[in-house]
Amino acid sequence: MKSQGPVARARELREALDLFNYQYYVLDAPTVPDAQYDRFFRELQALEEAHPELRTPDSPTQRVGSAPREGFREIRHKVPMLSLNNGFSEEDVLHFDRRVREILQREQVAYACEPKFDGLAVSLLYRDGRLDEGSTRGDGETGEDVTANLRTIRAIPLRLPLDSPPPLLEVRGEVLMEKRDFEALNRAQAARGEKLFVNPRNAAAGALRQLDPALTAQRPLSFFAYGVGEAVGWPIPDSQGELMERLAQLRFPVPSERAVVQGAEGLLRFFSKMSEIRPALRYDIDGVVYKVNAFSQQQELGFVSRAPRFALAHKFPAEEALSEILDIDVQVGRTGALTPVARLRPVFVGGVTVTNATLHNEDEIRRKDIHIGDQVWVRRAGDVIPEVVSVVLAERPPQARAFVMPSRCPICGSRVVRSEGEAASRCSGGLYCPAQRKQALLHFAQRRAMDIDGLGDKLVDQLVDSGLVRTPPDLYGLGLATLADLPRMGDKSARNLLEAIDRSRETTLSRFIFALGIRNVGETTARDLARHFGDLPALLAADGESLQQVPEVGPVVARSILDFLGEEHNREVIDRLLDCGIRWVAAPALAQRPQPLAGMTLVLTGVLPHLSRDEARARIEGAGGKVTGSVSKRTHYVVAGADPGSKLERAQELGVPVLDESQLLSLLNQDLSKS
Ligand code: 5U1
After folding, report:
1. How far is the CA of 313 from the centre of ligand 1 (A)?
2. Which one of 76, 109, 219, 557 has the fewest beta carbons within 10 angstroms of its own beta carbon?
3. Which residues contact 210 (CB under 8 A, 6 or more apart)?
């Protein structure tokens, strides 16, 4: 046999190794001893070494070929990777079948049933029969290029066993880790003193996202195919059942636990059979998938948003377990919302050990009547956050304590407030509270607020994490040397940032009010407040009644403003900001101001010679006018600059008077001088 030329021999070895691989990893039925596999493998390696031109990417020796990478490239799926509608009860299944029959106008429909793998959906693209690209599902439209990692999975063919392979075939399925492999992996981790993986799904996800394929190769991943995306030159069979047969012929692993059944009765029988055998399966599943079997019927049924109407994922009920509420802590989120979190006696449920569960808010705790010390049922399904389902009231110990929402923020000590009609309690120390620091700074710096160009997420993280900035006034004390020393910063960026910070000192009152991040005070309300009060001291002195005289400010917004300004910590930060030289042009309060444009509606179009859009709008609004986006019969004036566009034409059609910038200014001034 060895008298063959190297080309023919390499080909023979490759085909034999592919087959052994398939028998071992897909069929779980090896036909040769490991030693023979190794001998063939080494012979092929030696041949490829001696004749590098024989080394093809689909060779069994090339599974772990490429070097570690920096990150994953994005791949746009040729056909979107869909998500499935979920069903949780027999009723959901009956409803699904009824709807399918109604649309297809059939008495009974045949369905293909499969396990719903608890793994990671991937797409494998074969060009001319060779695995060319493999990607994760991502958001369904775009995934990550994990080709090198997928190539290390022995159950995935690198080459389709066809003499004339199709130009393009996209196979879809799920990467997972079998239970026995997961346990062995964790035993090895424990022996090395390394961290254990929580469950097979997490272990598989971690392995697939390794930047170094050599590390993925060390993790025992498996794969099951269940569908096809794009196919060119590969005639798609008529049904899902046949498709699975064809995928199996191409040596893709397909689950043997699958069936084609008739009607809802068949679906429910499959479900109960799978529920029974679930513990004995080699892999984790979280339900079963039903698909209308005939592809012609699938096409007729189509999609609703991103989920096919022809398929349903029937999920197993979420696992529940008994635990105990050891305590209830309160966490403060980035926006200041206080969330009570139950500290639980550790309990294994839904594949992980659960020690915490969110209790959402005070009302939820009352509704479920949860006390500290209670025995509770805890539920966890899939990747969702664990929840407390119910209390075992009969077991309530005499020393059980009710939960009381703290009146002061556990992080910064500011007052905790709860607005009418809101479930959440919030910390009122928005500008000061460490939990809200990053959010407050980002809000403060954004373009529509203080407009500090270059102060984005990453830089805020750096500034806060390094302790350089705690509250917004700290920004104005930053020095060049300190900034330039930050990683990835450099002298030029530091200078640019300092300039942007310096420029932001010159602002408007409405921007400043918006920048404070008062709950329920958006840009428009900030503008209304600025117009109404004219300057900051008047706003700071306002009571609930005077606040509600501002248009669109009702009791809820007024309460938010009072809570915020009533918090001493926030006042201190505002004072410090003013000390940093932040300034604006104050105006008399609206009540004392002439209103030459009161009740008038104006439209701005084109570029004005001196005033920016924002400035023109501010002046018009300051004079009592309103600026809208489109011209109608009710428009009083259109103010037009250079390149005005269709709004000017519309004004002329409707006979609306058109002003240029100087006419607008004189209208404002003229009326001002009259008053
Ligand atoms: N077993 C299986 N899982 N799964 C997931 N089949 C299957 N099919 C899917 C998905 C998202 O989608 C097709 C119905 C398009």
Report:
1. 8
2. 76
3. 149, 216, 219
